[in-house]
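Section handout 9: paired folding examples.
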Amino acid sequence: MAIADHERSTVNSGSLPGAGGKPRARQAILPILCAVFALSAALANRAVPRLSTAALIPTPIAAFPHTLGGWTSGADRDGRTPLLPSATIIERTYQNTQGQQFALLLLTAHDYADFHDPNICLPAQGFTLGAIRKVALGSTGDSAFLMTATLRAQKIDVLYWWPGQARLETGYGYDQWGKLLAARDRLTGEQGKSLFVRMMATHDSRSEQMLTQTASAWEPELVSLRHKEK
């Protein structure tokens, strides 16, 4: 995975981005975790047989702004992998002038089998997941899922949702639910815009509020990607 020169210098300096200061100290583990999460999701998803269906409509995720609402990111990190052949994945680290940081992952795919799901990839890497809470996102009517993931001394907050019309909520079981959605699309000819969003930050007293407030402010911009051409 390519990492921009100005981001590469932070790799050995600390832990995951969080709501507090010390951005260099908190950023080091991010590229490693992102790579681990992508690989584990790929391996888990690969085990699920694919069902032929009308292709989902990809979303132009590269058009999402690098600067938005007081937050700025460096260059994109390309998270694509041959194990998720229909998926395009972009990873970024955003920070603001107060030193707060979080990791953003955007994924779009032609196939439900390549949709990313933290409930699969995080436990596959040994993380223990906390209770999942559903949180409202601003005035759009959309909602997201918020949980903590813990591995030894590392505790992170994970906020994720599907702003596109194509959704994959795995409380019903990834295998069964994904196949049902694919079968529905095949029967109805429905083609939803596919978009998965994940935000992660080191857990602290302000991290949950930071993630949910930022996601709420950004949701209209994410939803607007549905109307842009790939």
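Moving on to protein 2 of 2.
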Amino acid sequence: MEKPIIHLYLRHFVRDTATLERYRDIVFRVLKVHQNPSLLVSMVIGFSDGLSADHRYQMFLLSRNLLDRNLAVHHLPARGCGHAFLSVLGQSIAEIRQKEGIICLLDADQFPFDEPRFQQQLDKLASSMGREARFVGLGLREHISLGEGKLSQWREIEEMFHALFVRRKVSYKDRKSASIPPSYKDLGDPVPGCYCFNLAHPKLPALFAQCARDAQRADLWGYAGDPYVIMLASTFSRIVSEIMPTHDNPPGLFTLEDIGRKSVELGKTSLYRAYLACVKSEKNLRIIQRYYPPDAVRTVQQMILHGLERSGKRRNRR
């Protein structure tokens, strides 16, 4: 089987000096891989409204290194990591003339995309998507670090609700040797930051048509973008996966209230009823409580339900 072309969209969010320095490293790594003939690399940079003029100038200077080599760079004023998902994928699908190969959206500072082992695993994932006629694939993290203390725990618990939503639709690779929490080994890693889409698959237009409809009602530019698309994709077809080498990724700014805000937006989409049932399920609650303190799981569950129910009340007023 011929090796598929991979359209690799590397995303990164610049909000301060530390994230600007990480972008500098990303640019250096992009320059190492951009001549790979089977890997068409583009850069997607979101930047905070509060980014200083000097930091913006330095960001654009770094991007010039890529533009001078005819690499596409998208600069998007945005609030967080979800900025790239719908806007860039939709734009890319419209621009790519030959609907073949794989689009991969990747967190640039979480995965060593310039290393041969990563490229080998990405090739395996792309090939399995073509061989099994799947239109979505996940690159799973072999190492997970979402911060420390309660904030990390809350994020993990929320991701487990996402994992249970998609659980029966994802073909997970064996993760026993991966350096990840037991919950991720058993229940899955649904929002890993490496997402692949098969351009030739006949269901892809329907997926993005639904995305466009939901985006008219919900703000999917923030944290809600990643879980939304994967959860939606799981309602269309099974999802394949491969384990990817992973860098330590400094955790972003995240609070318990972010979970509530994300849930409000997910509640505005076509996933509302199915996700509400998933989170309300006492069976699912007990499953997650095997891995985390029961009170913490209840806290996250109630925050999600509060957000979803706020959306439900707005639906009923229409």
